[in-house]
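Good day; I would like, with your permission, to put a structural problem before you. I would ask you to consider whether the tokens describe a fold that such a sequence might reasonably adopt. The full record is reproduced below for your convenience:
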Amino acid sequence: MATSTFGNIAELPSGNFRARFVHPTRPYNEKGRRNYVNAPATFRTKTEARLWLNRQQTLIATGEWKDEETLRAEQADAEEKAKTEAITLAEYAKTWLERYEGRHGTWRDYDKQMRLRILPRFGDYRLKDITRREVREWLESNAMETANLQKRTRATMSTCLRYAVDDDLIEFNPVPSQKRLALPKGVKPTRKKERPALTFPEVEQLAQALTAPQSALFTRLMGATGMRPAEIRGLQGRHISTTKDGYTAIVIERSISGAGINTTYKEDGSKTLAGTRTLICPPHLADDLQALADSAGLDGYLFYAKKSMGKPCTPHTAPISDRTVKGNVRRACERLREEMPDFPIITPYDLRHSFETNVQNSEGQRLAEQYVLNAYMGHADATMGDYYARVRNGDFERLAEAVTRATFPQTLGDNVTSIDKRLRA
């Protein structure tokens, strides 16, 4: 064995030479023996072996030497980095949508914007290659036909790439903020339209124009409680009960997302924490609602679809579709306009707005304090806890009877104080 000033060289039976040296930072292994670093291959001559040892000694002296474990780890990191940098927007968008945990309706809109707008333009781009300049030019181009389309497309792409930043795939989000974008040439700013509001009697007119009994009750319930359409679609028999004072209670704890007959539905929690609440049904609707709940059974949907995924289904087994509700309301409005040309064309959600407007100002007077109304409607507000803290026993019952009186004055007469007497009993 020939020994150099650094490491050692040994001739093998094959005639080749092995070179090795003691590990510079871990001279002994776990068994207490010398911890040698071997050359990756043998050498044909002793000179070649010594040259390799001299190079290793130089690297150690300059602090550039790395052991095999470090080199393997660096190689793995480099391969992972190359793999990460090769991820395209189409690949990342797929995983992002799969793990998205927000509301189903929001997911559907994100999926639609990705498929129809964003991926055809940037799907093949690596995430790291998407630039702010290109995104801005595209969002300000004629590809965005309306201001609302520009806003929704930008929001979807920005949300997706914000997650990519959180996943350490890119250093910053290349999507500019909405306020820094100019509208495409010829596109006018979106002006928020004022929602039409029906009076309580007009809501009843609309309900009577609906041919299907469950559609009429759906409309009356929205107009008399201000519930969200998705909340009413999610009602099952177990959500309807009778209080000890004889009122019909409606428990709202979830909503249904899914637009059409061929759409898969998703059961979500309430839209907000404040949306989980118990309402008192206005007396003039209580009997019909209870009868529908009895017919549906505990787990049956009160307002049900006749078809689900394009196939006929048993009553009360699938929720009525959002498209069906909207279509029924629109057709009823059009029938009413034949006799009353000024009757507005409304959407189901306009009935929620109508309820709020009517409670705030019905025949010149407020039917309930604002904090009662906010709690009753489940508004998402930073002060929602204050609203519920101020709601007193009997406030929801008073509001429910006030709505019935405003719709059908003859139903209850003027005996509002009966609520207080029953609560004190």
